[in-house]
Amino acid sequence: MAQMQNSQSVALQLEKVRDKLPLLYERDDILLTMIQQRGDVERVSSRNMRLPLQIRPGGKAGLANMDGGDLGRGSGTVYDVAQVTPVFFRHAVEITKLVEYASNAPEKAIENAAKREVKNAMAQFRAFLDKVMQTNGNGVLGTISSIASSTFTMAKPPGSVLVHLDRLVVINARAAIRGERGVATSPQSILSAARLRWIQFPRAPARTT
């Protein structure tokens, strides 16, 4: 009779699963953290908040004749006011009950998927807010300079650094001209990590070609 081979004993072998779960995508919130650490937070109503600003220096410095010379005229500091409109953001996450049941004990999974998803959601939401704060205030994440099938090239700066996978984005390729609302879709992949210029969709959204 032939010797016992590995295929005959596979059913007895344990499957080793590494209990560490590394993060393999960018999720920084550096700007948001810097602003929050200042502690300069105001509670507001639904009305615009007024922000007085000192925007331009005043005074005219120069040489002067202290022996009866004319000191000349001066000027003053210029002030202005900005208004901030309160807005609301949300971050939607969905899991099924089976996901919770299948991972709610160490014997079942290396992590409790439900608890970890809440933790991931909060971190990803902070990254979203960080990216929105790097826009000019209108939520525009970038400008598409060219389209090749389902691959969109974005102009630099900022390229595609403010877009992440599976994030719902609205493409206004021709909407501004036609007065349309634009097309909502989610990127499938971010291409060329070195240049960070291209995003790819499962298929080219309507009215963008």
Written account of the structure:
The structure is a single chain. Residues 174-182 have low confidence and may be disordered. A hairpin with a 6-residue loop joins strand 7 and strand 8 (198-200). The radius of gyration is 28 Å and the shape is elongated. Helix content is 20%, strand content 17%. The termini are far apart. The chain is α+β, with helices and mostly antiparallel strands. Helix 2 (30-38) packs across helix 4 (113-132). The strands form 3 sheets. A 4-stranded antiparallel beta sheet has the order 3-4-8-7, with no helix packed on it. Among the domains are: 83-133, no CATH class; 138-209.
Residue share in helix = 10-25%
Average pLDDT over all residues: 82
**What global shape is seen?**
elongated
Structural class: alpha+beta
Low-confidence stretches: 174-182
Alpha-carbon Rg, integer:
28 Å
- Total beta strands: 8
How much of the residues is beta strand, in percent?
15-25%
Order of helices and strands: HHEEHHEEEHEEE
Number of helices: 5
| Major sheet strand order | 3-4-8-7
- For the report, how would you describe the main beta sheet? 4 strands, antiparallel
